[in-house]
Amino acid sequence: MRIRSIHSLTENDRLAKAIYNENGQILLKKGVTPTSGMITRLKKKGISYVYIEDELTEGIVVSDAIGEKTRAQSLKTIQSSFQSMSDKLVLGKSIDMDKFTPAFSNVIKNILSEVKANGEAISMLSDVFCYDSYIFHHSLNVAVYALALGRKYGLMEKELEELGLGAILHDVGKISIPVEVLNKQDKLTDEEFCLIKEHSTVGFEMLRKSHTISMVTAHCAFQHHERLDGSGYPRGIKGKDIHLYAKLIGLVDVFDAVTANRVYRKAMLPHEGLELLYSGADTKFEKEMIQAFAKTVAIYPLGLEVRLSDGRIGIVAKQNNNISSRPVVRIITEEENMVTPYEINLEEHLDVMIVSCENCLSQHAAS
């Protein structure tokens, strides 16, 4: 299978992976050949990429970061819990976080179990969703990324559970923000942006009152928008004053935000998101932390069509652990001519590198 930009998807393509709606239910099944009407609706829903079947990429199988069952159950817990909290706010009632902690803790334990079992670099591109409720999927994705990065950082089990709980609840304060502001597609006014920034403090106040959530977990909500150079919010604290958990979550929060499908903007590919993080190395984020994250995620996901520095075009076929910037590529074109596919391991050929991603950044599509 290979990744295909929604803008170059045609009625001749056959889906290699199902597409899900916001509730985790299958919208388009694997094997479906999308009509022009379906493609138009997917564009309107904000889908940027899909996976298609392809003879040239036969044998390239993309696995999900976490299993379908775990993802569906996790999303259901996040959505129902956040909705219940929001309903209480509307009615002017206080929120008892202790009632929600057991369910969230169970979600984190399930995710952590699957992250440990998954020996490959993590890629969220493999989970193709159309959704209106971005916050639920974002909270889950940030938890998955944070746990994977936390393991790479050598955190112990208890620390990972604290980190995971802080990650899944880092944006809980956004339930207090009007939906029309939260989902606004146009540029926010200064007043609206100030309102958005309040979610860090609101979330902290909600979590710190809990008897079942640690104070360091509560500070994940409070500090995940703080930055090393003091340019963050809500307090503008710097460097060592920011808790390790908040630094980890702040990094993956930005990465997931820029690589996620949104109706009003095109998602970045993982390597573009990583470049954005590196542009803030040692000013916004710790460079060492970015480097660790680069070994955790699939910078060039399986199925991605890439151009090499010597002009050859191929499909990412396998990942090399800890060096996801240099995967195994299945070559399909040399000097713009189709060739019998063969593979090159970029970990062993250091004189060759990936210089661009063909199909996802343009209308190019080898077939």
Automatic annotation (TrEMBL):
Pfam family, one: HD_5
SMART domains the record matches: HDc
SUPFAM superfamilies: HD-domain/PDEase-like
Superkingdom per UniProt: Bacteria
Segments traversing the membrane: none
Domain HD-GYP per the UniProt entry, residue ranges: 114-309
Coiled-coil residue spans: none
PANTHER family: CYCLIC DI-GMP PHOSPHODIESTERASE PA4108 (PTHR43155:SF2), CYCLIC DI-GMP PHOSPHODIESTERASE PA4108-RELATED (PTHR43155)
Name of the protein in its database record: HDIG domain-containing protein
Organism: Evansella caseinilytica
